[in-house]
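fwd from M.: "can u put these together and see what the complex looks like"

so here's what she sent:
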Amino acid sequence: MNLLSRFGGRLWDPWREIGQLQQEMGRLLNSTRTLSGHDVREAPPVNVYANDNDILITLESPGIDPSLVDVTVAGSTVTLAGKLGCDRPDEGTGFHRRERPVGQFSRRLQLPFEVDPGKTEASYDRGVLSVKLSRPESAKPRRITVKAS
Amino acid sequence: MNPEVNCGAAACGCATSAEQPVVAKKETSLPEGTERTKSQRVYVPLVDIVEKDDQLTLVADLPGVDETGIDIAIEKNVLTIRGQVSHAVPAGFQLRYEEYGVGDYERSFMLPNNIDREGIQASMKDGVLRVTLPKLKPATTRRVPVVAG
């Protein structure tokens, strides 16, 4: 009918539409910058350390209540959940600055092998939650000697 | 932002709906042309500042720092907080995945004139520094009675 006039006189091009949609989606997904221009990351941040026997996950979570932290190990997935900002000062006359994060958090990490939940240790020190997971025998690095034929 | 958040309860079972985005750690800036003598990175700690009738409270997140690594200095009108982390990498482990940098902290604040500098107190728990800055009592006005004669 009057498709031509509806699309500004140009023929409707589905590929252009899809391209625009893709651009739009990409823009939405990549909009990880706040108005202040800081990078926004998943909260709270984790670091993963390893040695031959263990994996150590550390989570920067100052001021949390360690008794409310939930560490769950299921197969090769480790979930760390808790709550930030419980020590925030009471609302008084007013906040001049409010930068510290507040709220529930849950971080799920996928490990390349199954871990034994019985050998998992969690500790909380200086605002850093550490979870130590033991590598199963099959995931320990092994030195293979090369036989000369 | 989310004024309904109030973690006064000891159990901290309060519900938070709106979670604010977490900002990635930002390194401190140095004056033009200067360099640090140590290779350790230095970050800006996130703070909350609350004003009440009789005091200001400053709460800063310094994960990885304990009370022995904290240095608070007041010079002229500037309050400077410095925090030194004790271990960058856990002993015997190698970093495999990094979301946060481990380093020292430094941030300075200009103090208002009505702060009682002698009464400033600070405490450190679970990587959270709490500085209490009491306000000076306002000078009481003294009335001089005028006698007729």
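replying to her w this: The longest strand of chain A covers residues 77-84.
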